[in-house]
Each structure stands twice: as C-alpha cells, then as structure tokens.
Specification:
The structure is a single chain. The chain has 208 residues and is α+β, with helices and mostly antiparallel strands. 46% of the residues lie in helices and 12% in strands. The strands form three sheets. It has a three-stranded antiparallel sheet, with helices on one face. A three-stranded antiparallel sheet has the order 6-8-7. Strand 3 and strand 4 form a beta hairpin. Helix 3 packs across helix 4. It is elongated and about 95 Å long. 17% of the residues are buried.
Amino acid sequence: MAFTTKLPSQSDFKKVLLERYQEAIARSRKIGHRVSFRVEVDPAAGAQTITPVEEQPLASDDVFPVEDTGKPDAELEAALAQARERGRKRVAEIVAGDDMLSADAFSKLLGTSRVTVNAKRQSGQVLGIDGAKRGFRFPVWQLDKHGRPFGALPALHATLGNNAWAVYRFLVSPHGALDGRTGLRALQQGDDTSVLAVAEGMARGDFD
C-alpha cells in the first residue's frame, strides 16, 4: 500500500522515504535486477505519496514479445516464391544478353587462356557473373578503350564484398553521387576516384 503524509509532517515522510530506499537496495541485491519506488507530490491535496518497492523486469524480459505465428502465411509464401522466380528469370535474361561472353570467348578477346580468365575472375581483376546453367558470363563492356579490364575492378570487388552481382549492379545503375551516371559510364570517362568513393559510401550504408 502507498504511504501518504501531509506536507507539514516532514519527519514521518523522510523516515518512510529512507525505509523505502533501503528496502529497494536490499531487494535489488536479492533478486539481481532493478527495482523502483515512486514519490508523488500533490500540491493541491497537500500530501506526498510513496509507493511500495516494485520489481523491474530485465531488459530482455517481455520488452519485445515474440508472437508465435505458427506456420508461414500461405499468401506470403506464394509471394516469396513468385519473387524468387522473377529473380531467376531476370538473371537468365541478363546472362543471355549479347554483351555477355563465355569464358572461352572472353579469353580469346583478351588473348589469353580460359584458365587465366577464371583466375582473374576469382581475384576480382575481371567481372564474371554466375549464370547457373550457362556458367560464368563476362560483360564485354568491362574493357577500356585499350581492350583491357578497367583498373578499378579489383578495388570494386574488394569494396563490395567480392560479390560479382553487387559489382554488376553498381556498374549498370545510375548514381546520384555520380551526377546520374552509371558506374560504368564514370569508368569509361576515367573517373575512377569518384567511382570508388561512391562504392565505399554504399558499403558503409550511405544513401546515394
């Protein structure tokens, strides 16, 4: 029960306040987590009220209750399945494009072997995206005007988590921080410094 005392009776109020404080310390040590008591002052009623000591749950207790939803919602599952199917179709469309070369065709373009091309792909020196049934495909536009892979590709791979698809999306997408240019266009214009700066910002989670 709460203890109430009129404001003029300060001695009784101070005594109970100290008792509640000591009780809170003892209770907290006993149960191992926080407790509290509340003091309310009501000038209109001319009284002060002290509530009993109350236990406070741990931060992990019921702060974010987890609802048991049971089986996944059928409608949600269907939507996710449709999204995955759209993703597979989009990947198939990309790797089937005229600008995508097989490892053999790309190696001939570079004047090297397929083994060397795959080694360069694994080290991030060239961009090769996994086309599943079609195998790895190499965008022909990743070569500069001298017929060599863009020099910024290794750094782009490293910055974007060595994820070839992330590098591909970065290169083909327009970026506000590049004045609306795609990453590829900026590389073609020799603006490697800006391209890498934008990629680093994206890796940090900056808004483009």
